[in-house]
Amino acid sequence: MILYLRKLNLMLLVSLTLSLAGCSQRQSADLILSGGQIYTMNPQSPQVEAVAVKGDRIIYTGAVEGAYQLRDSETRIIDLMDMTVIPGLVDAHAHLFSLGRSLHQLNLVGTTSSAEIRSMVLDKTGKSSAGVWIQGRGWDQNDWINNQFPSWRDLLGTELHPVYLRRVDGHAAWVNKTALEICGITKDTPDPAGGIIIRDSAGEPTGVFIDNAIELISLKIPQPTNAERSSWLAAAIDKCHSVGLVGMHDAAVDSVKMEIYMKLVQKRQLKLRVYAMLSVDDINGGKAEDFLYGWFDKGPFFSDDHYFTVRSVKLFADGALGSRGAALLQPYSDDPGNSGLMVEDPEFMLSITQRALESGFQVCTHAIGDAANRSMLDIYEKALKNHSGSDPRLRIEHCQVLSLDDVPRFAELGVIPSMQPTHATSDMPWAEDRLGSDRVKGAYAWRKLLDTGCRIPCGSDFPVELPDPLLGIYAAVTRQDCDGNPQDGWFPEERMSVEEAVRGFTVDAAYASFAEDISGSIEAGKLADFTILDKDIFNIPLEQILDTHVRYTIIGGEVVFGIY
Ligand SMILES: [Zn+2]
Question: Which of 489, 403, 491, 504 shows the shortest CA–CA distance to 450?
Fold first, then answer.
């Protein structure tokens, strides 16, 4: 008791000293923004005239006169010249190292045939020494005239190099004959649990691998060095700044990535706010025990500058819809013998969820099909029943196909649906073929979820989609592709408002990472993170969101990207 009182006295003394210091020295701003539209996403004062920043914090929001009282000779003033300020945008589900790697590899997004890809590979082989792996990512056979899976035969002529090309969603890989040989894949190679080797009518592997079967190839590819990985990370962070992102939730960080992040954190050189989800599978070959359980013993990590947080775990329940690996309650409408794949043992997922909650960690599980989502809601429900400690905020990542019966369970259980608006507009040309006209009503069902009171943190899943959050906001509010199709939007009743979409990339992304007290809106005391746009996206025709450009990205009061 005596100790407690002493502590209290000390606290009183400290707070008295601090307030006296405040009286004697008027606070001056390092940065003032004024002269444009400032949307705070704070319902108490949704729009303000000016914002003042000191160090990495917002110290004032309100009228211009009030901000200018904080000005001294050192203050930098950004005259917005009618530009629009919103809280710094955060991508709530993405892959930073993969983005960096994709910037260094063949980018196959938007290709229209296997022949086009073959000629891109041949071009690359001409510039690399024989034997070096040629890697690429981004193909989607659904965009091709012949939308069957390709085979190694489509890459004939590339045999001096092993070739490894990931599908756009990362859930399938396509390789050439040399890669099959190097990896020892033959007719006799069995399908691994949770994976499929696509075979021809004679049972011979065709060169396409689904979900867990991808590792039969990927684990044989020489690992990049940490120097290469670091340079990928730097390139990815620059890219994020240029599209207006101040932060992202990294959906699977293993021990190798963690080491690179931690080095940057220690040197205070990480220039993007990263919320890391711990990977269950460790790249070093270990599973859970070494890496994840070590973190459970240590507990969550928060860097004092709020750039790096480790407080969540990434699990996978199923594959993806495009490669028909998403686990469905009923078979695929365009593949009646196939209901997709659950890729992890439910008992294992329950035990990880329980251990995570006990250790103060959140769980974020990839679930795309309605069977995977139901299974995860069941697992979460069980885990939550016996949990009484920390705020759980369990998440499901993607939630693409939901049984209508399961929609209300998210709000009831407090489970956060973390969704990616551009997935809907990328998948809409073929999603109904996969799902049929009834089941598609529970697909990408943002409005149905919002109406139950859910918050939807939004992301892009980059490099699956482009990292530009304005594309996500456009997709969320139109459900149209960039050419404006379909004319009224795909299932337009599921659209979000601009405000809801911006919330998804700001306030709700902050909530999904327990950061709503420090970021997500423009309020005094919060981090000075802003995205500044050349158009007022709240007051333009929706299609003009596509013509809106990022003018500044500001993180912790520092301009990390600017066109001025
Ligand atoms: Zn992802």
Answer: 504
Q: Is the dihedral of CA 539, 540, 545, 547 positive or negative?
A: negative
Task: Give residue-wise pLDDT tens across range 468-502.
Answer: 999 999 999 999 999 999 999 999 999 999 999 99
Is residue 486 reached through a cis peptide bond, with omega within 30 degrees of 0 on the bond before it? yes
Calpha distance 99→236 (Å, rounded): 6
- Supply the CATH number for residue 473's domain: 3.20.20.140
CA of 232 to the centre of ligand 1 (A): 17
Q: Cβ(269)–Cβ(479) under 8 Å?
A: no
Q: How far is the CA of 315 from the centre of ligand 1 (A)?
A: 11
Q: Is 552 helix (H, G, I), strand (E, B) or coil?
A: strand
Ligand 1 centroid, distance to 465 Cα (angstroms): 10
Q: For residue 252, what are the contacts with CB-CB under 8 A and spacing of at least 6?
A: 95, 277, 278, 279, 314
Ligand 1 centroid to 371 CA: how many Å? 19
pLDDT of residue 322: 87
Q: What is the 3-state secondary structure (H, E, C) of 513-549?
A: CCCCCCCCCCCCCCECCEEEECCCCCCCCHHHHHHCC
Cα 111 to ligand 1 centre (Å): 21
Query: Could you give the CA distance from residue 553 to residue 247 in angstroms, rounded to a whole number?
Result: 11
Phi, psi of 178 (to 5 degrees): -65, -40
Residue 241 CA to residue 263 CA, distance in Å, equals: 20
pLDDT of 342 strictly over 50? yes
Q: Which residue has the tokens 């065709």?
A: 206
Alpha carbon separation from 426 to 89, 99, 235, 376, 482 (Å, rounded): 21, 18, 25, 25, 10
Question: What would the pLDDT profile of 23-45 be if each residue is shown by its tens digit?
Answer: 445 689 999 999 999 999 999 99
Q: For a pLDDT cut of 70, what percent of the chain falls above it?
A: 94
Residues around ligand 1, an ion, CB closer than 5 A: 251, 461
- Residue 2 within any structural domain of the chain: no
Q: Position 184: which residue type?
A: G
pLDDT of residue 386: 87
Three-state DSSP at 133 gives: coil
* Same domain, residue pair 203 and 231: no
Instruction: Tell me, in angstroms, the distance from the centre of ligand 1 to residue 8's CA.
Output: 47
Locate all alpha helices (DSSP H) within 267-402, ordered by sequence.
292-298, 346-358, 370-385
State residue 284's pLDDT score: 53
pLDDT of residue 353: 96
Q: Both 329 and 462 in a single domain?
A: yes
Cα(314) to ligand 1 centroid in Å equals 10
pLDDT of residue 280: 86
Domain span at residue 508 reads 90-95+225-517
Which of 517, 533, 549 marks a domain boundary? 517
